[in-house]
Specification:
Elements lengths: L4 H22 L6 H7 L4 H7 L3 H26 L4 H9 L2 H5 L6 H9 L4 H21 L5 H24 L3 H18 L1
Helix pairs in contact: 1-4, 4-5, 4-8, 8-9, 9-10
Length: 190
Amino acid sequence: MRVSREQANRNREHVIDVASRLFREHGFDGIGLKDLMKSAGLTQGAFYKQFASKEDLVAQASRRALGGSTERWVDAAEKNPDDPLDAAIAFYLSEDHQEARMDGCPIVALGADAARQSPDVKASFEAGVKAHLDVLGQMISAASEAEREEKSIAILSLMVGALTLARVVNDPEMAKSFLDAAAKKVREIA
């Protein structure tokens, strides 16, 4: 049965959404195309009608995941306009976010994998990191643009590192200590 162009576009967007979640859960190489397409409710043959390669899908799914991550930061900030940074800290450095591997921060879930990927995938991550820095820059006080940029870079690095460490340890108290210590230092930096 032939699929309409509109349905093909919906299928393509659905595959990108599913891939962005599954890649965060399993890594780029941790899931094959057959299983990924099955999870999307499509056949592997449909993949090749929609994407040039798995690398093409990895780049697009990374853009989607990073865009969604930036939106969550903005949403958190909009919910607390009096202290948007505190809202971002409460969201990002939370035990819920630590456990949300499939829907959590793609920088944490895939950063090491992305470092070994193509320039196209790295470009997706670079754009996402820049978007995160822009959002953070709007939340912090600084005497100059250079200081704002430096603080944003330090804060993002600290938050990503803390969440990464919280996810890699078995001890829940140690994980919570990473998140709490980072939250305290982020407030000091800002």
